[in-house]
Amino acid sequence: MSENLANEKEVEEFLAECDHSFKYFCKSFFPAVFYKEFSPDLHDPIFEILDDDSIQTAAIAAPRGIGKTTLVNTIFPIKRMIFQDSHYIIPVSATSDSAVEQSEDIKTQLIESEDIAALFGNFEPEERKDSFGRKEWVTAKGTKVMPRGAGQQVRGRKFRSRRPDLILVDDLEDDEGVESEERREKLKKWFFSALLNSVERGRRDWRVIVVGTILHEDSLLNNLLDESMYPDWKTVRLELFDDNYKSIWPEHMTDEDVKKLANSYRRNEMLDVLYREFRNIPVAKENAGFKQDYFQEYEESELNLNGNSDVESVVLMDPARTMKTGSANTAIVGVGVNTRTNEIFVREIIEDQMYPDTLYNETFAMAERLNALVIAPEVTGLHEYITYPLRNEMLRLGKFYVIVEVSPREGKSGPRRSGGMVPMYRNKLVKHSSACSGIIEKYLLQWPRPSKWDVIDALSGIIYVLEEGDRYFEPRETGEDIESEYAELEEDDDPALEYERVI
Fold first, then answer.
1. What is the pTM of this model?
2. Which of 127, 150, 316, 397 pairs with 63 at a CA distance of 20 to 30 A?
């Protein structure tokens, strides 16, 4: 490439264009790596973010197989090095091993490029080979690269009086860790407290770029994409195909290829994996247990459920195991059941972190508001924490409720436990009060991978309460059935008896 530049002016113009456009840089210096045409819908949004130095924090959710790691975490830092835009680079990944691998890829591409060597010189130091190791290395031009895995020490690091000025985070979460709420919270704390505070906040020349694939509704990456939570972050969510399985990048994967891929995942009952990996959607729409059109809403003020003798109300509790900050929320759900009309009413929901006395008071207050006679706490692993204190507080306050312990065989939480609610929703047996429909529907639409399980778990307890009380739905009567019953009563009507009744 460099030999095609006739004079110094052409070299300057060429390098100016490379400095201005990362896409042009990629095609010019690494044509063998980027041999396919870039997609305007997939790659251009990434280039726009990387080319704009005013964007200090960015999160990019990209599908598998489009070269996001090579693009953002390998070639982009090389461009920053050779144009002296970054001086202290930290590649970050889920593990230290994967971060080191990425760092080595940067090093290899940098020192093996003949075009870079011809135009910018050699970046491998002639002396002090020990400074060019795997755990960290410094180029001959004075840029340091220090790979780090999630949770490793980054706070307070400096190189020649400089703090890190380019942090590239790639696939920070893994399939196993993202399933644990505790590990998700731990990772978020490290990210926001340690990693983001390793830069020089008083300067404007640092950047943090997060790229990955969304693995969970409550993943760090998915949270960063929420503008209501992090309005200062520039974000983009990319997908390889749309709802109709039409390819966004046909040069890479045709529509037919996409359909074959989707059918393969569908046969293996793994559509949720397909949607996460290639569309950055945590749950496949066609595979979702709870769908938007299953939901029905009602107004509590219009039905007078407290005055309906056919409606039995229950207050269900899913208490947190601990009151420590960051623990699972406590959920209290008020449910009304009418077995005659085959209706379940989700009447009220409270979701918060509570101390025991607050939990009891809120539970009793809800029971009083809903005219409930039954309180049903989940007791999985919590007998000593919840059952006795609840009964004791109830008696101390002079309140009397039937306590039904919910101890599901399926364990604390999960799709198996709450899956029993799916047919109830499918058959339109469940209705949500308008006052709490937003809360419950948000979590149900995320099922089987909700950001929080507590509200769903509490609601699922109604199945165990109904079984414990031998409450089963009665056959629904049609208008014809009712007319037929009236006709039978008229035929059986005895005038003598009617007379006696008048007397």
1. 0.70
2. 150
